[in-house]
Amino acid sequence: MVEIDALNFHFRTRSVFLGLSMRFEPGLTWLRGSNGRGKTTLLRLLGGQLAPAAGSMRLDGIDAQREPLAWRRASFYCGGEAPALDWLTVNEWLELHLALYEGADRAALRAHLAAFRLDGVPAQPVSALSLGQYKKLQLALALALPARLLLIDEPFNGLDAQAVELLEQELSRREAARQGCIVLTSHLAPRIACTHTLDLDRQAGVL
């Protein structure tokens, strides 16, 4: 379970959250909200990409501010931004992340890379990947990690039909097994069953 309590977050030009309190249960949660309501910002906060100005976030007893390394090892954010660390090769990028997550399933990673048709790119620089390929790389890694909190921003954007089908199957399997806490954003209703739906347009503390 993920618990957010009295969370504040501000960009330099505007505030996004002020006193936001909510929680995410095990299973698959569809995080809804109109453009600019903070869906991506919230996922990046939960994934350790951003730091709140005040408030707390807890994941099964792990406090994000007091135990940042443990939090990062328990969560993974998969976004749609341009490639990070793009001077690394794909293999180096993967190894950097695998070193952080003890218990990562390397066999599953190889299988997901092959399923997403990325098994031929390990020696390429990350900068050579298209945004679609980079998203598939993130997803393949995410599905192989032992993260208890998986955060996926607009997972189906930029994916071809085969990749969408593969991702839907994997998320549906995890949903049925209540395997961890998965939070995804999507402007359109996902075609897979979700345990929970949370709408930021109706959430107190969203500015």
What does this 3D model show about the protein?
With 207 residues, the protein is α/β, with parallel strands linked by helices. The chain has a single domain (2-202), classed as Rossmann fold (3-Layer(aba) Sandwich), CATH 3.40.50. It is 30% helix and 25% strand. The strands form 2 sheets. A 5-stranded parallel sheet has the order 6-7-8-3-9, sandwiched between helices. Helix 6 (161-177) links the parallel strand 7 (149-153) and strand 8. Helix 4 packs antiparallel against helix 5 (131-142). It is globular, with a radius of gyration of 17 Å.
Please report the total strand number as a whole number.
Answer: 9
Backbone structural class? alpha/beta
| Rounded Rg | 17 Å
Q: Return the CATH class.
A: Alpha Beta
CATH superfamily: P-loop containing nucleotide triphosphate hydrolases
Q: Mind telling me which CATH architecture this is?
A: 3-Layer(aba) Sandwich
The strand order across the widest sheet is 6-7-8-3-9
Name the assembly state.
single chain
Q: What is the ordering of alpha helices and beta strands? A: EEEHEEHEHHHEHEE
Structure characteristics:
single chain; 207 residues; alpha/beta; Rossmann fold; five-stranded parallel sheet; four-stranded antiparallel sheet
Chain-wise SSE layout:
Blueprint: E1 2-10, E2 15-24, E3 27-32, H1 39-46, E4 54-59, E5 62-63, H2 68-74, E6 75-78, H3 90-98, H4 106-115, H5 131-142, E7 149-153, H6 161-177, E8 181-185, E9 196-199
Parallel strand pairs: 3-8, 3-9, 6-7, 7-8
Antiparallel strand pairs: 1-2, 1-4, 4-5
Helix pairs in contact: 4-5
